[in-house]
Amino acid sequence: MMKLEHIGIAVKDLESANKLFGTLFNRPHYKVESVESEGVKTSFFQTGESKIELLEATNPDSAIAKFIEKRGEGIHHLAFEVKDIDAEIERLSGEGYQLIHQTPKDGADNKRIAFLHPKSTNGVLVELCQEKNS
Ligand code: ZN
Question: Measured in angstroms, how far is the CA atom of residue 83 from the centroid of ligand 1?
Answer without folding.
Answer: 16
